[in-house]
Amino acid sequence: MAYDLVVIGSGPGGYVCAVKAAQLGLKVAVVEKRATYGGTCLNIGCIPSKALLHASEMYSHAAHGMDALGIEGLTPKLNLMKMLAHKDATVKSNVDGVAFLFKKNKIDGIQGTGKVLGAGKVGVTSDKGEEQVLETKAIVIATGSDVAGIPGVKVDIDETVIVSSTGAIALEKVPENLIVVGGGVIGLELGSVWMRLGSKVTVVEYLDTILGGMDGEVSKQFQRMLAKQGMDIRVGAKVTGVEKTKSGAKVTFEPVKGGEATTIEADVVLIATGRRPYTDGLGLAEAGVALDSRGRVEIDGHFQTNVAGIYAIGDVVRGPMLAHKAEDEGVALAEILAGQAGHVNYDVIPSVVYTQPEVASVGKTEEELKAAGTAYKVGKFPFSANGRARAMLATDGFVKILSDKETDRVLGGHIVGFGAGEMIHEITVLMEFGGSAEDLARTCHAHPTMSEAVKEAALGAFFKPIHM
Ligand code: NAI
C-alpha cells in the first residue's frame, strides 16, 4: 500500500508530525527502530530525567527544607530502586500513550531501522532481519540526535562508570563523587539529581559561564545558587582526557587561557558536552540528500531537503535541540503537506532548565540585544519581594523583562526561580502576539502568586514596579 507520508523516527518531532498529518486526512506510517515509541525524549531524555528531578527534589526537601516550615524530625530514607521504578513507570505510561495515539489516528507503526532509498521509497529492516520497502509520497526524516562526545578526546562511554545521560538516569548506586563534563542543560540537570541524592558533584565547563548562550545575568546568578547548594563548578576549563581507573575514572582538564593541567577522580563521570544530529545508516548520501558542515540535514523554509519529497525536522536540522521546537516543526510540516500554511516562529521558542530553582527564558538575551545595537529597556523584579514566594520560602531568583525602548514591545523574558518553567509561558504568549511590557503590566494577575513577579518586572520595564 502507498502512503502519503512515511516518518522515520517517533520522537516528539516525528510522532507529532504523524498525528497531525493523520488528523488532516493523510495516510501515515512511522518507522521506529526502538521497541517503544517516543524517541530519546520519552525513553531516555526529558521524561525519565524529570521523574528523577522531581523525586530527588522531594527527597532533598524532606531532608532539608521542612524544619523552617515547622515540620521537624523528618529523616527520609532513600530507596533508589523504587525511585528508578517510578522513573520507568513514567516512561512506560508516556510511550504507551504514543502507541495509543497512533492507534486512534490509524497510523501504521512499523518496527525497524528505516533507510531512505530515494524520493518515494523507504526501506525498513526489522530487528528480526525482515526487510520491506514502503512507497510514499513524502518522507520525513525525524531521527533526532545522539551523544556528541568531547571534541578531540577519545572517551569510552560504558554507561556505568563513564556515562552519557542514558547511563546517568539509571545508576543503581548513588556515586560518592560524580564529575560532570559540560555545564550545559544535561550536566546541570542530572548533576543536580545526584547531588540531591548525596553525591559530591564537580562540573567542568569550557566556557567562562555555565549555560552558555543564556542571558549573562541569569547564568551568573544561577551559578552562585548552584555553588551554594554544594556544586563545585569549574569554568574556563577544557577537558583533555577521561580515563577509567581501578576504582572509577579520572578527568584531566586545563585552563582554557593556558596553564597547568589538573586531574580529579570520581566513581562516575557524566559526559554532557552536547549532542550531534543522528543520520547514521539512513542512506542520505546515496539518496543525494545534502548535509551542512555540522552534519545537519539541510532544509529550506518549508522543511524540504534538496531532494523533492524528502523533508526533515527536529534535532537533525538547524536550530535548538529542543523537543517542543521539533513538535512545532512537525505540526507545521504536516500542515504544509496537507496543503495548509504551516509556520514556526523561531523568535519565540521558550527554553527551560529543570533544576531547582528552574531557569527559563524566551526571546532575546541582553547580550544579543546589545550585539544587534537594539535600544532596549530592562525591568527586573526579585522573588524576595513577592509575598507568595516568601510564604513558600522560594525567594531565590528574579524575573527580567527586556522590551524595545521605542515601541515597548517585549523582546525577551528570563526567569530564575521556583516554577520558572511554567511562568515563562505568559511572556511567551505575550510575545507571540507582539505584546508590550505595558500590556503585560496592565494584565490583572491573581494575588498571591509567583507570577505577580512577572507583572512587576513588566511594570519595571514600562514604568516602575509597585512593590519595590
Ligand atoms: P549543551 O550544548 O547544552 O552543553 C554542553 C556544554 O559542554 C557546553 O557548555 C560546552 O561549552 C561544554 N563543553 C564542550 N566541550 C568541552 C570540554 N572539552 N571541556 C569542558 N566543557 C566542554 O549540551 P548538553 O547539556 O549535552 O545537551 C545536549 C542538547 O540537549 C542541548 O541542545 C540541550 O538544549 C538539549 N537538552 C535540553 C534540555 C531542556 O531543554 N531542559 C534537557 C536536556 C538536554
Automatic annotation (TrEMBL):
FAD binds at residues 50, 114, 143-145, 315, 321-324. Disulfide bonds join 41-46. NAD(+) binds at residues 182-189, 205, 274. Residues 3-330 form the FAD/NAD(P)-binding domain. It holds the Pfam family Pyr_redox_2. Binds 1 FAD per subunit. It catalyses: N(6)-[(R)-dihydrolipoyl]-L-lysyl-[protein] + NAD(+) = N(6)-[(R)-lipoyl]-L-lysyl-[protein] + NADH + H(+). Residues 349-458 form the Pyridine nucleotide-disulphide oxidoreductase dimerisation domain. The active site is at 447 (proton acceptor). One of its GO terms (cellular component) is cytoplasm. One of its GO terms (molecular function) is dihydrolipoyl dehydrogenase (NADH) activity. It comes from the Bacteria. It is an enzyme of class 1 (oxidoreductase). Keywords: Disulfide bond, FAD, Flavoprotein, NAD, Nucleotide-binding, Oxidoreductase, Redox-active center. Gene3D superfamilies: 3.30.390.30, FAD/NAD(P)-binding domain. InterPro entries: Class-I_Pyr_Nuc-Dis_Oxidored, FAD/NAD-bd_sf, FAD/NAD-binding_dom, FAD/NAD-linked_Rdtase_dimer_sf, Lipoamide_DH, Pyr_nuc-diS_OxRdtase, Pyr_nucl-diS_OxRdtase_dimer, Pyr_OxRdtase_I_AS. Its EC number is 1.8.1.4. The active site is a redox-active disulfide bond. Belongs to the class-I pyridine nucleotide-disulfide oxidoreductase family. NCBIfam families: lipoamide_DH. This is Dihydrolipoyl dehydrogenase. It comes from Mycoplana azooxidifex.
